[in-house]
Amino acid sequence: MKKYLKSLCAGLTISTALVLVGNQVTYAEETNTTTQASPAATSESSTTTAPTMSTTTTTTVTPTAPVTGTQSLPSAISTPYSTSVSTASSALTAVDNIVDIGGYVNVEGLPATLSEDGTGVTYSFTVSYQRLHSSDEGQTVSDLLIRVPNIDNADVKFTLVGTRDAIGNPVDVNVPMSIVDYNDAIENYTGDDEYGIPTAEGLANGKKAYVLSGNDYLQDDGKVKSYNIYTTQNHSQSVLVQVTIPMDQAKNIKYLPLDARAEWKASDGASTVRGYESGCQSLEEYSNHTVTMNGDPENVGGLSDVSLITDEYVYSLSNPSSITDDYVKDGHLIKSVSNPNTYITPNNGDWRTIPNDININSTTFFNYIDTFTLRWNPTVTYYAPVSEDMADQDVSMVQFGDVVVDYVVQGTSTQLQPSYMDTTLRPLFNADGSLGMYDAAENTSELPQTITYNGDVYNLVGPSATSLVSGLLLEGTTHVVYEYVLAAVPAPTPSTPSTPATPAAPTQSTQTPKTADTTNLSGYVAAFLAAFVGFSLTAVNRYKSNQIF
């Protein structure tokens, strides 16, 4: 850090001296050439003419499904990976010796999505920029330093999504970029544009697209992760930056910020890698262009401590209660998370054109043209931003939603069984940018036809009047309520006495009925009567005998 500050002071002293000397020389030239006519309006050669773009329409998906409870629709934020092409001017006009190229950089945060593997959250940004240069290529700013918070387990990826062809026409591409350590790159750097953004023809011929990490004391201090991109092309080019964070960590990071700004002023336009080693001057030597805040080189505010970024942002770290203000609107920044002198460039959904800053305060605005007195050298035409501070920030916002199914007795809040988690907490957007869906009626696990509670059986009636059993995933918890009623118990049926069967009527027969054989019966009766008579006589005789004696 001390080494950096020493270099910073030395660089500032040298740059100040150069500006003063340059001013004196320019003044002398102007004094000796007072009869020289002002240069005519100058435009770039065919390789830098901004082509006219046709207008297309941005398609934004807006949920329209009914909601219950405290749910809210996703905020009015850009749909991931969608762009709209606005009409760009077909010609650049010089005022004095300055050609206004529009903005230098635009950062547009996209809605955070579910990661491709489904285990994390991916925060995404479209970062577009174009280089500043002079007609003699004696002064250029052609790099972009991108910083994101240094978060454990975060994975950062870059994809080149917009470049130019050999004559400057915009070309949409989708090319992964390789990340190379800055120190490793400069060891074998040849001084050409090998690390610059390739043209469309270069990509077709196999040239790779690179991002160099590091070359930033704030990364060395562990406060941020820093990445550098370079170009030798004119007009805007664009990269997609994706920061993927594990789900558990992402649940505590609603807004993830990204800062991008021009970093190095150089004296040639052919090389790409920039730094003190190549004789460049850091633009962050100027207090209104540094990423840090309140003059503290260690304080990068919400760019390091993402917990500070809320809808009501506490501006000063040293005195948190000193200033509060609206901070995020419609999912995008309206104020810098770090240096308050960094103006937020309006988003336009179009990497081909970069808007100017608005509501500029000239006392705090970083005006490159005035800072480096470009109008003092009228023999050179400068292609530079007039109303944009060559820095921008935005956030990617995550919105979470889940779906819970409840089972209640109809007309009451009595729960018949524990709630069922149909959809666990996750980002509203899928990895491909589409809105997530849910369905709480897919199987009997989430939609049982009967439930036994306290020994009683309850039958399903259906969803409650306010429940939507399937639809778009919404921010917050979606409650789906199924209602049940007690199953009717059948009353006992009294038993009915059985009626004896009626004997069948005899069937007439033409045969002569068989006569019953009564012979044996008559014999039995005669024998019985004889025995009875005999017994009676014996009894009488014995009686009489007893009477004689």
Task: Summarize the entry for a quick read.
With 549 residues, the protein is of the alpha+beta class. The protein has 7 helices and 29 strands. The chain is 15% helix and 30% strand.
SSE layout:
Blueprint: H1 2-32, E1 94-95, E2 98-100, E3 105-114, E4 120-129, E5 132-134, E6 140-141, E7 143-149, E8 155-164, E9 170-176, E10 178-181, H2 182-187, H3 200-204, E11 210-213, H4 217-220, E12 224-230, E13 237-246, H5 247-250, E14 255-261, E15 264-265, E16 281-282, E17 312-314, E18 324-326, E19 328-329, E20 332-333, H6 368-371, E21 382-384, E22 391-397, E23 400-409, E24 415-427, E25 437-439, E26 450-453, E27 456-463, E28 470-472, E29 476-486, H7 519-548
Parallel strand pairs: 2-21, 10-11, 23-29
Antiparallel strand pairs: 1-2, 3-4, 4-13, 5-6, 5-21, 7-12, 7-14, 8-9, 8-13, 11-12, 14-22, 15-16, 17-18, 19-20, 23-24, 25-28, 26-27, 27-29
